[in-house]
Design a protein that fits this description.
The protein has four helices and twelve strands. By secondary structure, the protein is α+β, with helices and mostly antiparallel strands. The strands form two sheets. Strands 1, 2, 3, 4, 5, 8 and 9 form a seven-stranded antiparallel beta sheet that branches. A five-stranded antiparallel beta sheet has the order 7-6-10-11-12. The relative contact order is 0.19.
């Protein structure tokens, strides 16, 4: 689900036994953010097919290639100079889950009633109240950005062995995580279906003016192949 055109949430097929889910949240104003996040999704859709394993260097090269592409795009359009995007990518392959992220878009793993954040926020350390999370305007790295300050992006890459039982994933932009507490997020998976609408409505009602993207999915493994099936 997308709140507006500045952020994108998508899954895309890449081959048997591989399920990638991704959110990109654009930065740099409405137009720049829309172009940046759309570019990130489109590039990942094309280039992810080249990634067939969970090797750290492969995912790092993938993310840095997309970031460099954003810089090149800015060189041809002065109206979008400084645009950038967060990204959180989760790849489910066979019995392994790999999460890759830059910025503050998040990924959560939900299993046996417990919700665990598996992405890492690129935000400054809180200086005053540790309970107050810094806003996305203060993220410490993103894809793209100002060309003169551009440096190699260092994505957070983590891999996990998946349990042989039903489990769930939730990916979201800061339009959700800034306004909905972690304790409320498991409500998405209550009952017999996945339902993100109540959380989106609540984020908007509590002042969520940022663009909202969210993906929620439950998986059930197939015993013989150990390849999860999305439900």
């Amino acid at each position: 689900m997308n709140g507006d055109f500045e952020s994108w949430a998508q899954d895309f097929p890449v081959g048997p036994g591989i399920i990638p889910l991704v959110i990109a949240d654009g930065l740099g104003g409405h137009r720049g953010g829309r172009i940046a996040s759309g570019f990130v999704i489109n590039e990942l859709t094309v280039k992810f097919r080249e990634i067939r394993s969970s090797e750290t260097t492969s995912f790092s090269d993938l993310i840095n290639g997309v970031s460099s592409g954003l810089i090149g795009l800015m060189e041809g359009d002065p109206n979008v100079v400084g645009m950038g995007s967060t990204v959180v990518l989760v790849c489910v392959e066979q019995s392994t889950l790999t999460v890759v992220n830059v910025g503050d878009s998040r990924a959560y793993f939900f299993d046996r009633g417990q919700l665990i954040q598996i992405s890492v926020d690129d935000v400054p350390e809180p200086k005053a109240d540790p309970k107050v999370r810094p806003r996305s305007a203060a993220i410490t790295q993103a894809l793209g950005g100002t060309a003169s300050l551009q440096k190699t992006v260092v994505p957070h890459i983590r891999s996990f062995e998946l349990p042989m039982r039903e489990w769930s994933l939730l990916l979201c932009s800061d339009g959700i995580s800034d306004f909905i507490s972690d304790s409320e997020l498991p409500e998405v998976f209550d009952g017999n279906k996945v339902d993100v609408i109540p959380l989106v409505d609540r984020a908007l009602a509590t002042g969520g003016l940022d663009n909202i993207s969210i993906i929620a999915a439950s998986f059930r493994p197939l015993t013989r192949s150990r390849t999860p099936r999305i439900t």
